Amino acid sequence: xxxxxxxxxxQSREGSTATEERPEADWYVIHTYSGYENKVRQNLLARIESxxxxxRIFEIIVPTQDEIEIKGGQxxxxxxxxxxxxxxxxxxxxxxxxxxxxxxxxxTSFVGMAQRPTPLDESEVQSxxxxxxxxxxxVKLTLSIGDPVRIIDxxxxxxxxxxxxxxxxxxxxxxxxxxxxxxxPVELDPLQVERET
Length: 197
Known about the structure:
The chain is of the alpha+beta class. 21% of the residues lie in helices and 36% in strands.
């Protein structure tokens, strides 16, 4: 029985009708050292090539989502890991592919309930992939409700107030500003305020 990918490809090119039953590929979750997700992905890609298992390990995904951070009054888009310490791998599970993934530097274990890893439902994987392709990046705010702020831009520049509400989906905040002796809620972009110290 051919063992290497070259031998298997040669066998299939010759039109051999060997009926070796091959299981369908499933998605599995591997646990990694936190912060090493991308390094594990690179290590695994290199091992797939060097150990000739590209016919059994197909895709490796580090689930990330774009997020806008506001630092120093500037917006920066960064990729935030959705599941820190975890990587998704699409593979046909057998002893050899399990060994390749399990012994990749940085991998601590497969996620599962028994001796063998438990595959993810396809609906779960599609949900994760859909979440990665979100249309607009989320805004990461370092402000909290109740924080005293000074408005630095717009018609209310130099007014002071406190944060009353934070809308993470829209990337907006509401600040209660004292205006003619009354507290008035003003909706602002987070770039328009700075925290008072």
